[in-house]
Amino acid sequence: MFLAPLNYDKFFKKVFSDERISKKFLEDFLDVKIEEFEMLKGKHKVTDDASVVEFDFRCKIENAYVIIDMQQWYKRDIGQRFYLYHAVNTGLQLEKLPEKRLVLDKLTQKLKKVKDYSALEPVLTLIWMADDSLGFTNDYVAYTMTPEIVVDFMKNEKLWHNPEIIEIIKERARVLEIVENKAKGLRFLSKNRLIFLLQKNIVKNKSLAKYERWFDFAEKTKNENNKEEDFKEYMNDEIFCEIIRRLSRSELNEEDIIYIENEKKFWEEVERLERGIYKEGLEEGLEVGMEEGIEIGKKEGEKSKAVEIAKKLKGKGIDYSIISETSGLTTEEIEKL
Fold first, then answer.
1. Where are the alpha helices (DSSP H) in the chain?
2. Residue 3 falls inside a structural domain
3. Is residue 172 in a domain?
């Protein structure tokens, strides 16, 4: 092994803790030149019971707050999880929002300080998916908040089967009128983006986009037998030279080596469980009948897989909160296993 796996959380954080590296990655992916860049802390208490949300990486660039999270562990609740991170990253701006004063009573001239929400800035949430393509073939898939009428327009089968193109044009104009409404900051909503970066697809698609080299590099580090010559194309790049230095086998200590071995064994176990249990669930479902059976099989396979993974982690003495995050089961369900 020449380089440690970039996709492992520990090494991802080690690399992206360097401001030059993280800034360059964002420039390449967003295809912009970033002039203002500020690293922000990633661990926050956000609820009354002191629950902690921890981001792998969080920063502030011009006109946006950004988080990047490496998705390596198996998690069933990925949609909800990263929507929450997305929302929390917006809420954390309360720390820095300026205050403004409003006159409440003309007679008493009493003033009340309130937050100036017009200073709120968009949030970009980037989820780096190391293995899961989420069923997509694209390099990445971005979600943003748009008026419901946009989705209704796209799903209107009756409209799209209408041979009169003029009716479709009229409906499109009606939708655009709503989408382009700039009243009182409504356009702000669509500037917030939750983006799933799909490493497997990017490496396979070879789109030649600026960001491709980052994911190709990460994919090569996943090979436990990777060699120095695998990274020759990166040796003349100052940023990647620093990444290579940080991941170099010569820079790792005994704790790092043990971490890599443990991660490798765990993922091999998870992969075997996924293949075996998913197949069993699928076969059981097929006995019910074609389409319905396949769907039942998938659901049963997912549930069985989650239970088996939770049992495995529980046997290793892993904290219940981590098991819950990994399997999607509640702590109550885990206790009963």
1. 9-16, 19-30, 78-91, 148-155, 157-160, 165-179, 199-205, 212-221, 238-247, 254-286, 290-315, 320-327, 331-336
2. no
3. yes
Q: Would you say residue 1 lies in a domain?
A: no
Are residues 323 and 218 located together in one domain of the fold?
no
Same domain, residue pair 130 and 203 = yes
pLDDT one-digit tens code per residue, 265-283: 777 766 666 555 445 544 5
3 state DSSP class of 70: strand
Residues 108 and 208 in one domain: yes
Domain housing 172: 148-185
Domain tally, the chain: 3
* 233 token code pair: 């194309």
In this structure, what token pair is assigned to residue 81? Answer: 């999880």
Handedness of CA 254, 70, 77, 48 (dihedral sign): positive
Beta strand pairing call for 123-129 and 64-71: parallel
Q: Is the pLDDT assigned to residue 108 strictly greater than 90?
A: no
> Considering only 7-16, 101-110, 121-130, which range has the smallest mean pLDDT?
101-110
